[in-house]
Design a protein that fits this description.
The chain has about 180 residues and is mainly alpha-helical. The chain contains 8 helices and no strands.
Length: about 180
């Protein structure tokens, strides 16, 4: 049986800015890896995320703060708070985590500034792990999701300025 914490929407909205989440290695190590990967020189065999031509620089910039807050809260509340919790309760933590992460990954095939299904599944596994590790509380996974999206968007803005793809931790493989 999995616990069902009762976190308020206000607590989740503040989570990306709370030191108790920001100070944990499980929060900042993945973001540090994302930042370092985005700064690394691109090689011919590197994984890259090429900015979608249908999204303008202004659209990306305008959506960073509020949009990613809503995305992080909504996706974490559903995929971790409902799906991971329910499936972990019904089938055990391992199968619940795996299934909710695959569903999260499959929901990320689209246009624009979206991760690939594979990279979203991997992210979902990590966010689900954090969710389970933190007694099924969503605060840290909401914070990580928010800052991951913000840093990814900033990398895309930087790519637009330079008019080149930016390596971002295996988000899209180009052949």
């Amino acid at each position: 049986s999995t616990p069902a914490p009762m976190e308020s929407a206000q607590a989740l909205a503040l989570a990306p800015f709370q030191w108790r989440h920001l100070s944990r290695p499980t929060f900042y190590v993945p973001l540090l890896a994302l930042t370092l990967a985005s700064l690394a020189p691109r090689t011919a065999e590197a994984y890259v995320y090429a900015p979608d031509a249908s999204i303008t620089r202004d659209e990306l910039a305008a959506g960073i703060v509020l949009q990613y807050e809503m995305v992080a809260i909504g996706e974490e509340a559903f995929f971790r708070g409902v799906l991971n919790n329910s499936l972990s309760h019904a089938f055990g933590e391992t199968w619940g985590l795996a299934t909710s992460s695959v569903v999260f990954g499959l929901s990320h095939e689209g246009q624009g500034n979206q991760a690939t299904p594979l990279s979203a599944t991997v992210f979902g596994l990590y966010a689900g792990y954090l969710h389970q590790r933190n007694a099924y509380e969503l605060g840290e996974s909401v914070a990580l999701h928010y800052w991951w999206n913000v840093l990814s968007a900033l990398n895309l803005l930087r790519a637009r300025e330079a008019r080149r793809p930016v390596p971002i931790l295996a988000l899209r493989l180009r052949f």
